[in-house]
Amino acid sequence: MKKILFVVTSHDKKSNTEEPTGYYLSEVTHPWDVLVNAGYEIDFVSPKGGKAPVDGFNLEDSINKKFWENNVYRNKVEHTMKPSQVDASQYAAIFFAGGHGTMWDLPQNEEIAEIARKIYEANGIVSAVCHGPSGLVNIKLSNGKYLVDGKRINGFTNEEEYAVKLENVVPFMLEDKLIARGARFEKSGLWQEHVTVDQRLITGQNPQSAHAVGEAIKAELKK
């Protein structure tokens, strides 16, 4: 059984503010729980490698607590691989976890984009949740087209960005950028669970969608 590669951000500040950010813990743990229970092994990569900054640190969430107390996976997320250490052929799927930090370092990371392209073109799955689709905006396929071009997709919506009052802090609005790349953006209301599946591309709108994204990845892997 091939493994699944989780991508997390290395970026720990919201723009030039001192407000901390990073990967959003439940957006890692909820898909992780589904996929590990299904028998998959998960590895972690980040743009810089090493310890990934964490946001949304809430151990009252039982799944977060389970992950954080799992020595193997806690060690993995605190010692993430660098992109140069990843062999794309080992993975059946790649998953971009969200958190605002992703908006600053994932779009520009050509190495991770290339890993995702290889996995996708080897009939694997590309998936993301919340701000994680920021890592998809610059992935180009071998034919020169953007991965998201013409595909149904979702992610953190403009309305949700305005609701958290970060529309002037993020480097771009994720919904607008995906549409500019040719994606057919879908959305539900604020904080509603919404998962979109189109041609081995699986995306979820917000933290509330993280578990369902894990379930969708599991279902697609079974095909």
UniProtKB/TrEMBL annotation:
One of its GO terms (cellular component) is cytoplasm. One of its GO terms (molecular function) is transferase activity. InterPro entries: Class_I_gatase-like, DJ-1/PfpI, Prot/Nucl_acid_deglycase. The keyword Calcium does not apply. Gene3D superfamilies: 3.40.50.880. Residues 26-217 form the DJ-1/PfpI domain. Keywords: Glutamine amidotransferase, Lyase, Stress response, Transferase. GO terms for biological process: methylglyoxal catabolic process to D-lactate via S-lactoyl-glutathione. Pfam families: DJ-1_PfpI (PF01965). The keyword Lyase applies. SUPFAM superfamilies: Class I glutamine amidotransferase-like (SSF52317). Belongs to the peptidase C56 family. HSP31-like subfamily. PANTHER family: GLUTATHIONE-INDEPENDENT GLYOXALASE HSP31-RELATED, PROTEIN/NUCLEIC ACID DEGLYCASE DJ-1-RELATED. This is Type 1 glutamine amidotransferase domain-containing protein. The lineage of its organism: Bacteria, Pseudomonadati, Bacteroidota, Chitinophagia, Chitinophagales.
